[in-house]
Amino acid sequence: MSGNSTVSEYTPSDELASPEHIPHELPLDGATLVMTMSDGAVLKNFDRPLPPISILDVSFLAHTLKGLTLQVAPNSEAARALPALIGEIAMPHLEELAISVREDGTNPVGNLICLEFSPARLPSLHSLLTLGVQVITHPSLSTNLRRLVLVGNTRRPRPDLVVQVLEYLEACYQLEELRIVNYLGPTDRFIRQRVRRSRPPELPFLRDVHIQEHPQTIGLILSGLVIRPRATILLVGDNDPSRPPIPSHQALTEMLSVNGECLPLLRQLTDVDISYLDGNCVITGANAGFDCVYGKITLKLPDALQDSYNQVPNARRLGDLIRACAVPFFHPTVSRLSLVGRFCAVPNDAWTFAFNRLPELSKIQYDDPHVHTIQLTWLEALATRYPTQDYVLCHRLSFLDIRCGLGGWLVPEQVCDCLERRGDNHQWMIIDEIRIHLTPSEPWPPARIAYYRKKLLEGIYAADVFLDVLNPRRMTQRRWG
User: Fold this and answer.
1) Inter-residue contact 202 to 226 (CB < 8 Å)
2) What is the CA angle 302-305-308, rounded to 5?
3) Of the candidates 51, 91, 97, 52, which has an alpha carbon nearest to the alpha carbon of residue 71?
4) Are the CB atoms for 366 and 351 separated by under 8 Å?
5) Which of 270, 313, 403, 424 has the most CB atoms lying inside 10 A of its own CB?
């Protein structure tokens, strides 16, 4: 809005009289209001209070509104006026609506405001964003929606809304973007039984999904939808603050407790990245081509892997995580696996279980910035040979990239041992390229580098070797091939 004009300058027609139960004025002091008109004009206020706006003026403007953004403080007069504004005034040309009830430390949200969105009053609505309110709408309104964002209040979860949300989504055939963040909270078995369905609806245009809820709630939402393979999906699992944290492997299983029909992308992955650094566990799977990504799914898991007394990841729990990850993510289509973090102590049997599901794996990238004092168990698993079947795990492996933090002096020797046992004098087991990046605690003598040159390159186990040794005082690089 310009400095000398207000919304009240518009003259309403006599036929737009408001019902008696609608307040005569909308007290918008301290609120943020942005209105986009059908002719492209934008009316907004940011740093100064608006004068009270007559409900007749809003009714007059409503017939030309194309976009409306309204942010109000909780427990304010403006917040209490929202149900009347949204529920009683027709906005036939409104395409984008964003309503936010802001929460701060001095004025926290009380009971969530319930807003009912009528398809008769909002027939053109394409984008709906809400924060801090409870949404009630009719499935017929959902048919036009292309963007739906529901952000709630973590301290006041509403798990009973899961059934309602899934009913909305079932009718959102044209939906392109879906975001649900702290809107529902943890669910119980009674709610989960209510949403069981034989055939979930398919949303063919959905390309962007972001869900941040309790792992069971995420799994429940995903089980009620069919998301196309080319979508970008972000799933963030939150712990229930009223209960002990659940292990990360259990959270992963609950989040992806869906069949292949609901998430067909999982069976088309080519690249999988698993990262556990500073208590943050992230798993990403992508269907990647030569020059683009055709679909991507990322999981951020609640942290319950490390021992509280020394902040070191528990090897058994990490092993459980690798096993849990292998079931939904590891399929014959995967050709590249990246591991970032302290996975060196994962039990051998967990790696064997995982690698058995990756027959076409050709690239492994491993990066552990921590101090290395033990062997890499995943190399030991890859070295296992089954003589009766003349078989090794991941027989198409052709590229290794290993980066280790301080220490790591055992790594080159273990790589040599692994490749020697895998090859067993068979020419077809040659690795095309090996990259080893080390930061030893003491400078390496030239004789040691020469030894590994002979071991790795002059043998029959690697065609190209890159060894990067970063010493405390200088960096020595050697490349052969």
Assistant:
1) yes
2) 105
3) 97
4) no
5) 313
Q: Check residue 58 and give left, alpha or beta (phi > 0: left; psi -120 to 50: alpha).
A: alpha
3-state secondary structure of 276: strand
pTM: 0.84
Rounded distance, CA 149 to CA 169, Å?
A: 12
Task: Please give the C-alpha separations between residue 4 and each of 9, 214, 322, 371, 391, in angstroms, as whole numbers.
Answer: 10, 49, 64, 66, 82
- Please choose, from the candidates 161, 160, 124, 162, the residue with its C-alpha nearest in 3D space to the C-alpha of residue 145: 124
Can you tell me whether residue 338 is helix, strand or coil? strand
Distance CA 446, CA 344 (A): 27
pLDDT per residue over 13-37, tens digit each?
A: 332 223 333 333 444 444 566 666 5
Q: Find the farthest-apart pair of alpha carbons in the chain and give their distance in angstroms, rounded.
A: 96
How far apart CA 441 and CA 451 sit, in angstroms, is 19
Q: Could you read off the pLDDT of 174-185 as tens digits, one per residue?
A: 999 999 998 888
424: left (phi over 0), alpha (psi -120 to 50) or beta: left
Tally of CB atoms within 10 A around 323: 20
Residue with tokens 């200088």: 474
Average pLDDT for residues 362-370, to the nearest whole number? Answer: 90
d(CA 246, CA 237) in angstroms, rounded, equals: 10
Q: How far apart are CA 332 and CA 360, in angstroms?
A: 6
> Residue type at 308?
S
How is residue 52 written in tokens? 């009270």
Decide which of 46 and 64 is more confident.
64
* DSSP type of residue 267: G
H/E segment holding residue 320: helix 315-329
DSSP letter string over 75-133? TSHHHHHHHHHHHHS--TT--EEEEEE---SSS---SPEEEEE-TTT-TT--EEEEESE
Beta strands in 138-269 (DSSP E): 147-151, 177-181, 202-203, 208-213, 226-227, 232-237
Token duo for residue 295:
């679909």
